[in-house]
Amino acid sequence: MYIDGVFSGGGIKGLALIGAYEVIEQKGFHFSRLAGTSAGSIVSAFIAAKYTSDEIKDLLKDLDVASFLDERKLLIPFPFAKWLFIYWKLGLYKGNELEKWLTEKLAAKGLRTFADIPPQTLRFIASDITNGEMVVLPDDLPKYGVDPLSFSIAKAIRMSCSLPYFFEPVKLGSSKSVIVDGGVLSNFPIWLFDQENDLKTRPVLGVKLSHHLSEHPKHQIKNAIQLFGAMFETMKDAHDSRYISRKHAKNIIFIPTEGIVSTEFSVTPEKKEELIQLGRECAINFFKKWTY
Question: What is the DSSP string of 68-80?
């Protein structure tokens, strides 16, 4: 059976998405259209490239995720030098190694640009903080004078994954608009399929790295750091949560991943498997009661 799918962002926690995909695959579902943000854009692209869940696990099994942390080098290093790159380059790491890896793995399945897939079958969310707008890739590229069909899928994922201050933003178009992680504005873009599925030709299934809305723990705010964290989480989830609460909660596999840091790139093989197993378990429980 064909369905449409949406995968949320969550950094390294996105490993849990793979476990959920494994169960979806075992249930005999195939994706007609896919959308995702940040880590969800990576998983969505691999599925669109026809990678199986086992193949994706094999890709990540021996991968040193820390290799994506490509710092810029100074000719004369000095203490705290890397923090200056937040000021100069707006991020600690370049993000080039992530894009290079994505380019290689997608090309192995014949995907390089959006011309290699049918229109509207794969979309990602990014955030244009120059113009204060959400960006749907590749749909919105013409606004920047960019041809969607010739645009690299790996570059689009790189844009969706550009966590502010962590990875350097991508400059887009002749105006050099600064593009960062889509999670800033929409971490779970299930709304992309709403109007398009008015006729309900296919079910829409989401996989979201969070508690169910009714079970979401309250933020503990006792100091300035906790305040900043709570503000960022609220900003990231408020738009999507309001939308989900109205329509789609019954069609979403919720995977609670609190206590795991999104940027924990030194993740051990054991932790990788633990996250994948968490995704499996949540998906198995979901399918016990899902009706479509």
Answer: G--B---SS--TT
Q: Is 181 a catalytic residue?
A: yes
Catalytic residue among 4, 181, 237, 240: 181
Burial of 274 per CB tally in 10 Å (0-12, 13-18, 19+):
middle
Active site residue 198: no
pLDDT tens digit sequence for 275-285: 999 999 999 99
Say how far apart CA 231 and CA 129 lie, in whole Å.
17
DSSP at 167:
E
Q: Rounded CA gap, 55 and 15, in Å?
A: 13
CA distances from 2 to 21, 24, 52, 247 (A): 14, 11, 16, 21
pLDDT per residue over 172-199, tens digit each?
Answer: 998 899 999 888 889 999 989 876 555 5
Q: What is the pTM of this model?
A: 0.86
